[in-house]
Amino acid sequence: MPTLKDTYPLYLNNKPVQPNTDLEVTDKFIGEVAFRTALATPEVIEEAIAGAVRAAEPMARLASYERQAVLDHCVARFRERFDELAYALCVEAGKPIRDAEGEATRLIDTFRIASEEATRIYGEVQPLDISARAKGYLGIWKRVPIGPCSFISPFNFPLNLAAHKIAPAIAAGCPFVMKPASLTPLGAIIIGDVLSETDLPEGAFSILPAHREGADLFTTDERLKLLSFTGSPAVGWALKARAGKKKVVLELGGNAAVVVDADADLDHALERIVFGAFYQSGQSCIGVQRILIHESVYDRFKAMLVEKTRTLIAGDPKARDTFIGPMISEKEAQRLKAWIDEAVAAGATLLCGGALDGAMLEATLLEGVSKTCAANKEEAFGPLASLSAFSSWGEALAEVNASRFGLQAGLFTRDLHKVLEAWDALEVGGVVVNDVPSYRVDNMPYGGVKDSGLGREGVRFAIEDMTEIRNLVIRRL
């Protein structure tokens, strides 16, 4: 496997800078320090924001082919550094190596999509002669970069969720400052290393590992025109409240439900639901948390789920046969273990799993979880899913909606009428049919409603947020 360096810089105004080695990043499986990175001070963050402001005009002047060339360079270099990127994820996030390779592939996809979108940020010609007073007038509008952007990315997809902010910004012509998660900063640092090889204007980007308190500087500064945050609902909504006049995009949490109807292909549903609930130890905001099963197939499918879940291999994420790796920290594993214990004490049945060893929590299935328990109403963000039965389609849809979250939902059914009914009724950002809510393609609109967020990602849709419409009215004389 590749080796990691002992220390890594931050990237300030396009350049690597090593003012210190204050941020220790651990190997999440063994719990020991794997490497150290530079930690951004308030002075460094201020310098980065000032650089982004200076870069706004030259970034906006870049031709679409020039922005595309930068993104194409990134695609090529990420392919060359694929093994390094995947291994870094495996170490700093504890992500099983196969999942890490999958995320590195998605990183490449996201930049490739952005390269394509960079040359098709279209406007529109609009006839204005809707009445006699506007005869002879013509309207034309185009999209222009919003200006300096602030990005805060999470620990669970440190490559691809950073890419979903960085790549659209480059495509749109927006300079940016980014705070990667302090638990998993290396993916973003490597992206910064690749970007430093390009001819982007000075100040076009800064990658700044910082502690959580540093996020305030990324949030409140009025020179920043957009804040894009991915993380927990509590932090996200608090940041929005302090963001001032800037545009805010929030990709927050969920406790996603999947519905298995009586006519579902149970073998297919089994493979996808087990994956959706437990891949990368369930640490996904669209991971399967609530499994709703039609009463006519409930007992059969429950037995299938328990049997399959018990076969999942847990252990060292660097081993190719490992499916369940560590959670991001022992603290988080202990938190979720407490939720499991609370649910069982309130009457839930532990079907399998539940054992804790450091940051390793077994893949866990519960049945009959009380609606008042955290395991039902909050975001588990770990290897935990609960089962319940339903008797009618309307009852199932109501149960999906009985949540303060609304990110994505999955349906396993062959009935098109039920699919369309669900698409109308479900209070979520996306409905996935015959697959799990965990499914995402990087060009689709992605985001949630209710406490799950505000706005949409997916490269084309992120570009819309990172641009503003500028209108031109022409009167023919």
Give an overview of the whole structure:
With 477 residues, this protein is α/β, with parallel strands linked by helices. Helices cover 38% and strands 22% of the residues. It contains 15 helices and 25 strands. It has helices at 42-61, 64-80, 82-93, 97-117, 160-172, 186-195, 215-220, 233-242, 266-278, 298-309, 330-345, 374-377, 393-401, 416-425, 459-465; strands spanning 7-8, 10-12, 15-17, 23-26, 33-37, 124-127, 137-145, 149-152, 176-179, 205-207, 226-230, 247-251, 257-260, 290-294, 349-352, 356-357, 360-361, 364-367, 384-390, 405-406, 408-412, 430-433, 449-450, 453-454, 467-475. It has a seven-stranded mixed beta sheet, sandwiched between helices. The protein has a six-stranded mixed beta sheet with strand order 10-9-8-11-12-24, sandwiched between helices. It has a three-stranded mixed beta sheet with strand order 1-5-4, with no helix packed on it.
